[in-house]
Specification:
Blueprint: H1 2-15, H2 22-38, H3 68-71, E1 76-77, H4 81-96, H5 99-105, H6 111-120, E2 124-136, E3 143-153, E4 160-170, E5 176-178, H7 185-195, H8 198-217, H9 219-250, E6 274-278, E7 282-285, E8 294-298, E9 303-309, E10 314-319, E11 322-327, E12 331-334, E13 344-347, E14 352-355, E15 364-368, E16 373-380, E17 383-388, E18 391-396
Antiparallel strand pairs: 1-2, 2-3, 3-4, 4-5, 6-9, 6-12, 7-8, 9-10, 10-11, 13-16, 14-15, 16-17, 17-18
Helix pairs in contact: 1-2, 1-4, 4-5, 6-9, 8-9
Length: about 400
């Protein structure tokens, strides 16, 4: 095992494109030893958080069929020195804000991600722990890497754990690179399928428990991360808008200033669709009167499209594909997701339920599979408000990055 560890370290020192900080070099030696034995440690299960929350909102999904040659291959820890070197270079470049190195080892980096890397680096100290668990990729020469890491923020001592999925491929020259470009449907489904297998779910759950234990033991760390995320979201949004505006100006897309007053647009306005939910079981009438015929009953929590909000205290709604009327007192107008500002992106660290409201007992809208991304609308305590299939949804903040 010592020979294997020494070989890995020698390879990293020869192949790395940048010089690692001393703390990362030391941590690599430690984590290689730990990770070589990590595959034998099974059976850890998700525990309840200190707040008394159960694991009900971590939702396993049925496993789609996978070809047998891949189905039974377990996670392997730090097996390939070349992959370890690539991933270590990737995270070290993030800590240093080294965009040239990140660009050289990734096939593409979106503008928003590039800005996020640059701004986040201002708050990072190092990644002292890296462990890479792998499964075969969809195509020959590709690998799915589940990276367990610990990150230290500038001015703080806590080592905050996390896990991220990377798709590593081989180019025509035989060099490894991290693929960020859009995946094909089969390729994407393959990665999602392997991410629901037991050993991967166990890894994500183990990291979740470790993260939650840290947040319970160090509540100021949770507060710090929340404030940092809010600050980064604001800064990144401003810089992204400025960058896009600058590119449009350079490309000549911005029309010249003239003294001519532009004519008003003749395009019809797109009507805003308003929805409401029934706050209790309530009668639906054929007109705006309590003496009108009953069309039926809207059950508590039922979502209805509001066609018109009348001044007499009634709302015209669409009920079972017919127009009906309900007293406004028994309806709660819902926010329109299209009118809300997107402040960032969250990525699911495990399979997690999406709820209609910020409660684990509310209606389940669907599931985010580990690695899925969703647009972030707001932070609301222990919950993240997201855009999900064109609707507003909520996920537990503990289970997203």
């Amino acid at each position: 095992m010592k020979d294997k560890m020494r070989a890995v370290l020698d390879f990293i020192m020869r192949k790395s494109k940048i010089v690692f900080p001393v703390i990362v070099i030391a941590a690599v030696a430690v984590t290689v030893v730990i990770a070589l034995n990590a595959n034998d440690k099974k059976g850890e299960q998700m525990e309840s958080l200190a707040e008394g929350m159960s694991t009900e909102d971590v939702s396993p999904t049925s496993e789609p069929e996978v070809t047998l040659e891949y189905k039974d291959i377990p996670l392997v820890a730090n097996e390939d020195p070349a992959i370890y070197s690539l991933v270590a270079t990737y995270y070290n470049a993030q800590a240093l804000g080294d965009m040239d190195t990140l660009t050289s080892i990734c096939d593409t980096i979106a503008l928003e991600d590039m800005i996020r890397f640059q701004e986040t680096a201002k708050y990072l100290e190092s990644y002292p722990v890296l462990e890479i668990y792998t499964k075969p990729g969809f195509t020959q020469g590709s690998t799915i890497a589940y990276v367990y890491y610990k990150v230290v923020f500038a001015g703080r001592e806590e080592e905050c754990p996390g896990v991220k999925t990377l798709y590593i491929c081989t180019d025509e020259q035989g060099e490894l690179f991290i693929k960020n470009d859009v995946l094909g449907e089969e390729e994407d489904q393959y990665i999602k399928t392997l991410s629901t297998q037991a050993d991967v779910v166990e890894l994500f759950n183990r990291v979740n428990v470790e993260y939650n234990d840290l947040m319970v033991a160090q509540p100021k760390m949770l507060e710090y991360l929340s404030e940092l995320n809010n600050e980064l979201s604001k800064v990144i949004g401003v810089l992204l808008a400025e960058q896009i505006a600058g590119e449009e100006t350079q490309n000549g897309d911005v029309p010249p200033v003239t003294d001519t007053v532009p004519e008003p647009s003749t395009e019809p306005e797109v009507p805003v669709i308003v929805y409401a939910k029934a706050t209790t079981t309530v009668n639906v009438r054929s007109s705006d009167s309590i003496n009108a015929d009953k069309l039926g009953k809207a059950k508590e929590g039922m979502k209805l499209q509001v066609l018109e909000q009348l001044p007499n205290g009634w709302n015209k709604v669409l009920f079972e594909n017919k127009e009906g009327y309900i007293k406004a007192d028994y309806l709660q107008i819902l926010e329109n997701v299209d009118n809300l500002q997107i402040i960032g992106t969250v990525i699911a660290t495990t399979n997690i339920n999406v709820r209609a409201e910020a409660s684990k007992t509310s209606t389940k809208l669907g599931i985010l599979i580990a690695g899925d991304a969703a647009e972030l609308l707001a932070h609301e305590g222990e919950w993240c408000k997201i855009k999900y299939n064109g609707e507003i949804g909520y996920v537990k903040a503990e289970y997203v990055e």
